[in-house]
């Protein structure tokens, strides 16, 4: 059991109509606010107007950067950092889903660097400073609202890189489940697949760690399995949206990690997929997850699958461990592809074998992904083939 | 489902040999450190020497206040605040269990007040400032290491009052499970009863709130039930001590509360007991808990007991809810009094009916305890009688 440092200082306003606190929170950091957002859905749902009103009421000066894409590009990071430098911005306000939040964190960091922001992703320069980031979340998925990480894509090099820098931790996040009412079925399902995979990447680990954290993870997974279908059927069900939103945050804010040595598997594989095919992250994870589970199941790892199957899916504890394990993989497939209705194969989404070798090579960085079961390039190609 | 603000910024160093970070953490706040502790057990286990060494290495100036009692007295708060004012202390270092930590928080607050610290407990003065508090925990029980509350006794008035002030939140806490190896069976058991009751006070609530938090609470309770007996049998079992320590923290740091309207029941009753009889808090809670459960079980509340019994104790879901409920009370009694070996009645610990009326009157503040089931003075007397 390894030591760890728990350090998650983000303050969260959870629930409806909490934006009355936004002006005061922004004002702690200065007068000039850069609001970042995506394609304009926040205008459709009236969120943009509410935020602008609060900023005006607080007497702050508003700057804007819109058009941040899903799988956010380094170009957006550079564009944002340019505004911050030129306008001497004091605080960043990210309004949107994980892509907007991730991009905004790097804008905050890149403001303190004079070159191309991609150098930060390549770890060529240290990241010791970041403008304060406040977020208003509109999608339950990535957990970016309460962690210090972010993933940025570079379409020129077809790379997608995710890093964590403590200075990028959001100071404050506003989580209003009603802002996710308009998230469509597909993105609701992808969000659920994403948060579920965040937990599985930590949970499936043979390091001995705190039982209490396994219990917490099992509880979070049960919550996703219970409420994602409800949110699909009733998009404005507050109970479902609230449970999914707070669960997605805690799936990846670091609490459940404890002292486990962390090495994720599905995420590095999926990042290569999105980098080339620009698919939705949660969809790529959904397709990979059950194949990765099947590929990593063996006599050594079966005990973890047994724990998962009995505690999360309530599979009969009296069955043989290997039987429970296989059944748990069936049940998670069923959840992802039948209940959530996500496409189940690469073929269905137009991905063939063409790039498997290069993606696998990049995913394991020409070496080995040291996760739950270590995966080399051939292993990853094998998993990709299982997804066809 | 109510809104809430999540705000728990305490940084925690969890595990063995983390005190190498203590000097740097203290130094952030200044040069003059007041270390507070209890009766000297920290000297016996070598912790005192380690801490003094780290403080010397960091070039800090050390002041001390020892002799803080269990059920800490307001006299200790005043004594500590006097030192802080006289010596111009920059930062407080509380080393011990919940009593030392609670007392130290109020020392930090009372430093900014010129009168008797009891005025703070009587809420006669606002608490807007507190010296920074850093803690080194040696007992898994109260959760004071990661919350902003504390309970102080006044032997003269026979009052015991607990309040929460955000400014008292510890900046940093060091949680080393090995420091609890020497905690004897009785206090290990009382600690387990305390943390279990902290969760039950929140869990048993008919407000609709986040399912995910109920799942987390069930996980924490399962952890206590699994590991408290192990710690009793093998006091130096790291896995057991670590699980109990981190669970006790999360039982009461505020996370599990969500948006529930909070009104605790057993704690106000127990505080009156300790105020008069100076018993160990966890023991008082242990005796009260199953009686309070029995007293509050009815057709309205049975659904919560059913959830508790099936999810925490694994009682057969096919049984009638009332049967599950009664069985769950039996099982918790069995856990507290047989497994943990705690005394099960007031009579055994020398408490009779003499003060029931006055304690009940104080516990409900001459009105009604508005908890899981509202309890008036007569209800509380009835529960006390069930404990005889």
UniProtKB/TrEMBL annotation, chains A, B:
GO terms for cellular component:
cytosol
Q: Does the keyword ATP-binding apply?
A: no
Recorded hits in InterPro entries, A to Z, give:
ADH_Fe/GldA, ADH_Fe_C, ADH_Fe_CS, BDH-like
| Regions that span the bilayer | none
**Top-level lineage group:** Bacteria
What is the annotated signal peptide range for this record? none
Q: Which one of the record's GO molecular function terms can you name?
A: metal ion binding
One family from Pfam that matches here is ADH_Fe_C
Instruction: Report the residue ranges that make up the Fe-containing alcohol dehydrogenase-like C-terminal domain in this protein.
Output: 188-386
Residue stretches making up the Alcohol dehydrogenase iron-type/glycerol dehydrogenase GldA domain = 9-177
Per UniProt, which keywords does this protein have? Oxidoreductase
Which PANTHER family does this UniProt record tie to the protein?
Answer: ALCOHOL DEHYDROGENASE YQHD
Q: What is this protein called?
A: Uncharacterized protein
């Amino acid at each position: 059991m390894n030591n760890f440092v728990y350090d998650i200082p983000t303050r969260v306003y959870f629930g409806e109509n909490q934006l009355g606190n936004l002006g005061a929170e922004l004002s702690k950091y200065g007068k000039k606010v850069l609001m970042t957002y995506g394609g304009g859905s926040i205008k459709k749902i009236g969120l943009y107007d509410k935020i602008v009103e609060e900023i005006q009421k607080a007497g702050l000066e508003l700057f804007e950067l819109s058009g941040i894409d899903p799988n956010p590009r380094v170009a957006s990071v550079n564009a944002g950092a340019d505004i911050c430098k030129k306008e001497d911005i004091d605080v960043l306000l990210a309004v949107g889903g994980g892509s907007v939040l991730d991009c905004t964190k790097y804008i905050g960091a890149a403001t303190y660097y004079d070159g191309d922001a991609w150098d930060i992703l390549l770890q060529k320069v240290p990241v010791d400073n970041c403008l304060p980031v406040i977020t208003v979340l509109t999608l339950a998925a990535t957990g970016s609202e309460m962690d210090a990480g972010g993933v940025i894509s570079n379409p020129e090099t077809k790379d997608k890189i995710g890093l964590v820098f403590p200075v990028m931790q959001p100071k404050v996040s506003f989580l209003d489940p009603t802002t996710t009412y308009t998230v469509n079925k597909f993105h609701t399902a992808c969000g659920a697949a994403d948060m579920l995979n965040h937990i599985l990447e930590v949970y499936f680990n043979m390091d001995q760690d705190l039982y209490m954290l396994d219990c917490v993870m099992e509880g979070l997974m049960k919550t996703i399995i219970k409420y994602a279908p409800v949110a699909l059927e009733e998009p404005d069900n507050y109970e479902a949206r609230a449970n999914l939103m707070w669960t997605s945050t805690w799936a990846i804010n670091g609490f459940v990690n404890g002292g486990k040595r962390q090495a994720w598997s599905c995420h590095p594989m999926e990042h290569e997929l999105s980098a080339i095919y620009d698919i939705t992250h949660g969809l790529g994870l959904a397709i990979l997850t059950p194949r990765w589970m099947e590929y990593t199941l063996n006599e050594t790892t079966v005990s973890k699958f047994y724990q998962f199957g009995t505690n999360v899916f309530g599979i009969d504890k009296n069955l043989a461990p290997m039987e429970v394990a296989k059944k748990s993989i069936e049940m998670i497939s069923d959840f992802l592809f039948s209940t959530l209705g996500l496409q189940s194969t690469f073929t269905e989404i137009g991905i063939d074998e063409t790039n498997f070798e290069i993606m696998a090579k990049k995913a394991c960085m020409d070496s080995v992904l040291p996760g739950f079961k270590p995966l080399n390039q051939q292993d990853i190609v094998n998993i990709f083939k299982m997804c066809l």
